Amino acid sequence: MFSFCTDPAALDGLPWFACYLTTGKHLAFYAAFGTVLLLLAITAPLALAFGFAGAAAARGPAPVSWLGKGYIAIVRGVPDIAFFLFFVIALDQFFEWIRHEIRCPDWDQPIRRGNDFLVCPEAKLPLGNAAQWVHETYGFLLAVLTFAIVFGAFAANVLHGAMQAVPRAQIETAEAYGMSRRQTFWRVLVPQMWVYALPGLSNLWMVLIKATPLLFLLGVQDIVYWARELGGTKTPQFTDYPHGDWRMWYFLALLVFYLAFTRVSEIAFARLTERLSHGQATAAGERQRRAAAA
Amino acid sequence: MSCWETIADYGLRSLGIGERLLPRSEFTLCQQITLIGSGMIWNVYFGLVALVTGFFLATAVAVGKAQDNPWLRKPSEWFIFLFRGSPLFIQFFFAYFSFLSLKSAYPFFDPFTSAWLGAALVLFLNTAAYSGEIFHGALQSIPKGDLEAADAYGLSGWAKFRRVTWPTMLRLAWPAYTNEAIFLFHATTLVFFSGFPARQQMGDALYYASYFADKTFNPFVPYPILAVYFILVTLGIIGAMGLANRRLNRHLPQNQRRGLRLRPGAALMR
């Protein structure tokens, strides 16, 4: 990175650290923070969409509502990390099985043989000869989908509660005006539920941030992976920058990163709530009105 | 080999009692149910230890946060922020590697690098922070009249806290605290995936479930088994906490007693 980094062994103190912290692997470590942010940026809206579908299903007619309520209930009873480990394999096998059915209709051997899961070579995902980045992207997309499914259930929970919290009189008024079920849902219920959903959704966002290190368990090279990799004891034979076991310090850095991230989100949500409460007939809105009047 | 023999061999496998070798081929349903159930011993151990010890620290933290004196309030606030603001997964990693570094300097820290003590310590501090926040919220919403009534009876200091403030705080916090207990038990599955070694493959339920899923490439058997175990534990927690809730509310008139209505939207998670 820097011109004085040609002979690290001769360096010490600050220049050594400047060179050490800008090695290729460290740059990959910093890029992994981008991976985390990318995951959050894709997962949050996707989970919200899943949650909306789940909450809407839970309000629907009988067989559909069982599906929605089951989706909400199951994640509460079972640890989320179990779902992560489950869905990554299950989704992968599901996609491969679908491709297998389409691409190799005349394959006569069973897919599950003993302890193996074998589809025809054309159905492999990604294909055996695919480039490394395809494998990594596929792994990342599986992780995104898994996160969206699991946190969609939590979002469904929050949104379902918010839909219940919209005053019953509003719905009855809409019905009295002759609106259909669909019109009532989209024109009256959905616009009003967000205020009630906001505390739950802000909580969910925090939970989502704090769940991102679990990417490591899904086989993605994320910040936890690199912290373990870079922090481990390095001997002079294998690297220009030998050091002892520094994993503790790397994880301390991650801890600080997450603390800062959740703190910033907390402040942002406090501002958003303040703004949304403006002019509302709630305690918070009333307090703002009085403060302005005084 | 019959199923009873499997249970006799593997029932306490997670504690190192019984057959040492794990099955390597032909994973029967009975083996999977037995070994995953055996791993549940660890989840229940971690959950119970953290919950019982964390309860007392949580009370102290909540009372500390409610003080006017900044010397008492600030440490409590920072403690809660530190453990609630960062992922438990990272806390486990950091604690494990810290204990590892400390161990080389002070042999005293040797047992802390094993899951039974190190991970239990992290879970204890973590649940104390989450419950402390819940208790603090309850402490703030104790009806003013209750405290004034205590003053009128001449109660003060410790007697007032012991007889009025604390029971009322628990009563108000109980539904949220039940949620916290459920998620604490769920969080125990992270232990053996976050640095803490499962020596001789003595791990928790998720450890064995993922072992079977890796060996058989079939996630559709071990994970549902795990799910059933955890749903049973969750129901057990709700039952036990419901009994405690009945006792906390026993002085109220029948029509004011609140059942343990869990508000899932307010769920706290790590």
TrEMBL record, chain A:
Residues 33-269 form the ABC transmembrane type-1 domain. The chain crosses the membrane at residues 27-58, 70-91, 138-159, 188-208, 248-269. Keywords: Membrane, Transmembrane, Transmembrane helix, Transport. GO terms for biological process: transmembrane transport. It comes from the Bacteria. It is a multi-pass membrane protein. It is found in: Cell membrane. Pfam families: BPD_transp_1. GO terms for cellular component: plasma membrane. InterPro entries: ABC_transp_permease_HisMQ (IPR051613), MetI-like (IPR000515), MetI-like_sf (IPR035906). PANTHER family: ARGININE ABC TRANSPORTER PERMEASE PROTEIN ARTQ (PTHR30133:SF2), CATIONIC AMINO ACID TRANSPORTER, MEMBRANE COMPONENT (PTHR30133). Belongs to the binding-protein-dependent transport system permease family. This is ABC transporter permease subunit. It comes from Histidinibacterium lentulum. The lineage of its organism: Bacteria, Pseudomonadati, Pseudomonadota, Alphaproteobacteria, Rhodobacterales.
TrEMBL record, chain B:
Residues 40-238 form the ABC transmembrane type-1 domain. Its main location: membrane. It comes from Histidinibacterium lentulum. It is a multi-pass membrane protein. CDD domains: TM_PBP2 (cd06261). One of its GO terms (biological process) is amino acid transport. Belongs to the binding-protein-dependent transport system permease family. HisMQ subfamily. The chain crosses the membrane at residues 44-66, 78-99, 111-130, 181-200, 220-244. PROSITE patterns: ABC_TM1 (PS50928). PANTHER family: L-CYSTINE TRANSPORT SYSTEM PERMEASE PROTEIN TCYL, MEMBRANE COMPONENT OF AMINO ACID ABC TRANSPORTER. InterPro entries: AA_ABC_transptr_permease_3TM (IPR010065), ArtM/GltK/GlnP/TcyL/YhdX-like (IPR043429), MetI-like (IPR000515), MetI-like_sf (IPR035906). The keyword Aminoacyl-tRNA synthetase does not apply. The keyword Phosphoprotein does not apply. This is ABC transporter permease subunit. GO terms for cellular component: ATP-binding cassette (ABC) transporter complex. Keywords: Amino-acid transport, Cell membrane, Membrane, Transmembrane, Transmembrane helix, Transport. GO terms for molecular function: transmembrane transporter activity. It is found in: Cell inner membrane; Cell membrane.
